[in-house]
Amino acid sequence: MAVLQVKNLTKKFGSFTAVDNISFELKEGEILGLLGPNGAGKTTTIQMLLGVLTPTKGEIYYFGKDLTSNREEILEKVNFSSTYTQLPWILTVKENLTYISYLYQISNRQNRIKKIINNFRLEKLIDQRMNELSSGQLTRVNLAKSFINFPKVLLLDEPTASLDPEVANYIRSFLLEERKKFHVSIILTSHNMSEVEEVCDRVIFIDKGKLLANDTPDNLAKTIEISHVELLIKDGLKRTIEYCQRNKITCKLEGRYIIVDLKEREIPQFLRNIMDIGVFYDEISIEKPTLEDYFLAMVKKNNHL
Amino acid sequence: MKINRIYAIVLRFLFLFRHSFDRLTDVFYWPTIDLFIWGLTGLYFQKFAPNASSIMMVIISGILFWLVAWRGQYEITVNLLEDLWNKNLINIFVSPLKFSEWIISFLIIGLIKAIMSLAFASVIAFFLYKFRILIFGFYLIPFFLLLIMMGWWIGFFVAGLILRFGTRVQTLAWVTIAIVSPFSAIYYPLSILPGWAQVIAKFVPSSYIFEGIRQVIKTGHVSPDKLLASFGLSCIYLALSLLFIRNSFRKVLQKGLVKVY
Known about the structure:
The structure holds two protein chains of two kinds.
Chain A lengths: L1 E12 L2 E12 L3 E5 L6 H9 L6 E6 L2 E2 L4 H5 L2 E5 L10 H9 L7 H11 L15 H12 L6 E5 L7 H18 L2 E5 L3 H7 L2 E6 L2 E6 L1 H6 L3 E10 L1 H10 L4 E4 L2 E7 L3 H10 L3 E8 L3 H11 L4
Parallel strand pairs in A: 3-8, 3-9, 6-7, 7-8
Antiparallel strand pairs in A: 1-2, 1-4, 4-5, 9-10, 11-13, 11-14, 12-13
Chain B lengths: L2 H17 L1 H28 L5 H32 L3 H5 L5 H31 L10 H26 L6 H13 L10 H7 L3 H15 L4 H32 L6
């Protein structure tokens, strides 16, 4: 069942089209990655989904209800966190969570705040003012804030930016756990492609306001044919480079390693050919295309690089 | 309309009040300084006109009642600015909070601070000059309400402008009410104003109130037509200011709440 349906969503600022007629759905318990280069229209889309930016055209339905006419009821079950917004900096963590909790209908408010503080490991920070926190701690408070109302739909803009790897990993596990326990549906933007691959069931790729792809991370990665073949050359490094240049094969050197970009089916032939010219290698590893390769290819294709 | 959401915003500004030296200064420090300076000036003038004992009363009551209008306006505009400076507007409006609830919370916080400020300043005025605010009796209530209404509509007009143009016009939050003050005839009778200024003063609700305050000091009574004129004007301006801020908010939603700064 779709908890969010977006139909022909468009946003124009004067003659500039920031979001161009996009449609997609978010299913119950699904984690959807919203990807695209800077300025692609991700933040504009999220703002419209939150009702803080009026679309030029299109419809947004949560739980089968139109956002415009059921804003109050819908936003009780939706929340948002972004590393780019702040909570009042002079207030303490506890004061911020307390006043925000009153914006929602929450039974047993104090228990909820305590639980959230515990979940996001904020126990030692509750009496500190926001302006005394590190950027990683601020991100955690922002995330805690977004869970305060038991949201059914969460919109997270770069949720793990500025977190150290251990905490980022904990947050990713927490998101997956919440989804499992409460069927929370999440839309997430991130520039960390391995994070998107790890947590997202599906990814939509937006560029120049247009929705260019909507599929699982694996399927999107599979659309890229090029694999990276990494060889530790024992003898014949120069010959290998010359061979690549002659055959217009992209390669780059990293110390004694050479990384060659090839289509999967071309790899056996390539290996035979370099052996024929007297190249010997000690190690070989083949990296299959990842979501990051897909992202880079799309960005390159659309002339961002 | 949900009380919990209005309470949330009021609570947010009360927390701020507790921590912010600026906000504490506004409520306690400036009224005390005003009372010292103008009260002592009044005492000095009274030496030259010993029979005009009402000079002190007019000055002190002017300071105290002007605080009410000032606080009403200030709490709306500066609290809006607080949320812009903190980039917090989006956190508030991704919640179910309605625009009307947001507006009501500003009115409540203005009311709380105005009462706090007036009460504090009245105690100071009593200790310094033996001035009793209760001499206004029942009239205290309409004077207070009409002046805070004026603070509210000025506050909403300025807040509407800040929403449209961002913090580059933030200085209006501090200066706007000062533009109205000469026409409010706080410390002098309306008749002192030049003819053109008297015409403008007729459209300023507070001018009727301060005329009324002086009338109470002099006769113990105030003509109801003064209160009604002030009330009528304030109702019109308040309605217009609410339409203006509502419209400004809609315009902001066209470009995105995140972009207001």
